[in-house]
Structure formats: C-alpha cells, structure tokens
Amino acid sequence: MRRRLVLGSAAITSMVALAFLIPLTGLVGQLAHDRAMNNAERDAQFFASAVALLVPDERDQVAALLSTEAAFDGRLTSVVFFDDSVAGAPVPIDQYIESARNRQATSRFEVEGGEVLFVPISEGGGRTTLVRIFVPDELLTENVGSARFILVLLGFTLVGIAVLVADRLARSITGPVGELADGAHRLAEGDLDAQVSPAGPREVQEVGRAFNRLSGRIGKLLAVEREAAADLSHRLRTPLTALRLDIDSVSDEVVAERLRDDVGEVERTVDYVIKEARRPMRQAGGAISDLVEVVGERVRFWGALADEQERRWTVSLPSGPRMVAGAAVDIGAAVDALLANVFAHTEAGVGFDVSVTDEPGVVRLVVADQGNGFGEEALERGWSGTDSTGLGLDIVRSTSEDAGGVMTIGSDGGAVVTIDLPPAG
Description:
Elements lengths: L1 H51 L6 H10 L7 E5 L5 E3 L6 H9 L3 E5 L2 E11 L2 E10 H4 L3 H45 L13 H33 L2 H11 L5 H26 L9 E3 H18 L4 E4 L6 E3 L2 H18 L6 E8 L2 E8 L22 H11 L3 E6 L3 E7 L4
Parallel strand pairs: 7-9
Antiparallel strand pairs: 1-2, 1-5, 3-4, 4-5, 6-8, 9-10, 10-12, 11-12
Helix pairs in contact: 1-5, 5-6, 6-8, 7-8, 9-10, 10-11
C-alpha cells in the first residue's frame, strides 16, 4: 500500500508538473526571443534618429558613429544607403533590403544564424536609407537553457516533495495497519493478550479498537470454556470415589489391588484433564520428550490388561533415547488413545504390535492390531463405530500436528496407525 500511494502521488505530481513545465519552457524561449528583438528594435530606432541627421551629406560621420556603437551588445549593425553603399558591417544587397525599402516600416526577417531588423530612414525623393541590425541566435536564446534547467529542476523538486509527503501520509496508514497485522498473527498463534495501539486515520483507529475488543472477548470466552471443561471433569471425582469404596468390598485382594491401580490411573488422568483445561494456553512449542521412554511406559501399563484378555502383544523399541518434539504428557495421551482404541474396538484375544523406528528425518511410531481395521472416516472428529466419543484418533492427529509431525492410518490385516515426529534439535 505504501509503495502504491507513493507511486500514485509521484505519477499525479509528474503529470501536473509536465502540464505546466512544457508550456513554460516554450514561453521562456519566446520571452527571450522577444526581449532580444525588442532591445534590437529600440537601439535601431535610436540609431536611426542619429543617422537621419547625418545623411545624405555626412556619410563619413555615419561610419564614425557606427564605430562608436560598434558592438551593440553583440549585434552586427550596418547602414545601407539609398545607392546600396554600406557603412559598418558589410552585408549583401539581397531581397530583404529591397523588401524593407518597399515597406517603409520597421521589418524583421529570419535569416541563417539569426534574425535581421531593418529601420527605414526616408531622405525624400523616393530615397530610403536603412539601418540594419543582425541579431544572432546566441542572443535570441540567451539564458534560455539555464532558465529551462531551473524549471526542470523545480519540477523534480516538486515531485520529490510530493513523494516525501505521500510517503509520510502512507506511513501514517501502513504503520497502524502493519501493527494490526502483527497483532492478528500473534492472536492466531495463541497470544490471547495481543493488543494494538490505535493510531492513524480515524477509520484505522476504529479497526484497532475493534481488534482489541475482539482479542479481549476471545480471551474471556476461552476462559469460560476452560472453567466449564474443568468443572465437568471435576464431576468425575464423585463416581470415582464411590468406585474406590466399592473396590474395598472386593474379597479377592489381587483383583482389588489391580482395580485400585486402575482407579488411581483414572484419577490421575482426571487431575491432568482439569489442570490442562484450566491452563490458559497449551504448552508452547519447544517442548521435547523421549519417545522410547514414553511409549515403553504406556505399553507396560496397557500390557497388564492385554495379558488378562489373552492378547498377544509385542513392543519393539530402539536402544537409547529418541528425543522428539512434543510434550511427554501429550505424546503419552496419544499413545493411550491408540491402545485404548485397540481394546475398545477389537475382541478379546486380538493382538497388537507397537514399534518405534528411525526413518529419514523422523522418528516413527507404529501401532498395529490384528482386528478389522477402519476407513478414512475415522479421522473425522467425533466419528465412532461404537458408543464412544470418537475423539481418540483426533487427539492423536492433533498431537502429532502440534509437534510438527503427521499421522497416517491404513490396514494391513488390521488397523495400522503411523505417527512420524520430527527429532528434537
């Protein structure tokens, strides 16, 4: 915008300047020409008055007078007597002389190298003596070049001033608009406190104030939503407490202990959900975690349930840590969602395999089962083939994308979910 305003101002000012300068340059030349010829005519009239007193008897005095007025500011002056004799600068007797005699009035003619001026002096008896002054082109165009240069320089100066003024005006608009754009980018990146200082024209200031109100309103609405989500999650504590009391009545201590561990895991998950819901923002980019450690821990947790349901399961992990982008809690939740899908959507006894491998540019996590698989519609948020919420795969997809990775699904005799995560650093 700033560039367009400056270019537009320069174009308009240039057109206006040209509209004035083109006629002015021609006028300057005409004024210089008229000035030179008027001066020549004035001097010729004065000289003719002096010559009229000397002719026809004192031609020698005319020559002497010409010698005293010889230059006439660079003009060549001659007196052509009625008998075609010449005093002063030699000149040919041509058609211009005859024409001037016939007119009996001041005459001007354009000749090679300038203009010639004739002033007639009548001696009576049809005899006419002429005062001839030749004005060269140098005098006709004297100072015209410098005057035109000054006009052109003035035109460029006006255009430059217009460009500077337009740039200042454009900056008063583009500056606040640029700040608005930066604020919008910060808001899009999750900075709910993004505010701008309204500036510039009144309309732009109004947009800035509207942006500040929008930013504040979004923050308030999200805060309300977070509190509502936290309150809903908190309501799970009551049935969990009742469940823990019911477990105490289980006679089989081994089963009761396992149930207590499961309830404890659920309570920790609920605590995590409440904490995450009340946190103003998700953990910013830059978090890293050991994928091998996270996957190993979650597979061991689900392995106990798999053994109870007689599911064959394997886990293949590389030796040593594999640091990837993403928070450990988020990646752990994604692994839990994948393994929970295996247990929720396959019959007891259906096995699964979990592996972490190094691939070019990424660390790959693969969770595969020997069930019936699923289609692409499973990626839709809220889709489910059972009565579950259907958010599991969406959580996995969001987690992988937030970490800069990608999730793909497929079937190879069963469901296969692949997550490629960028290595940390």
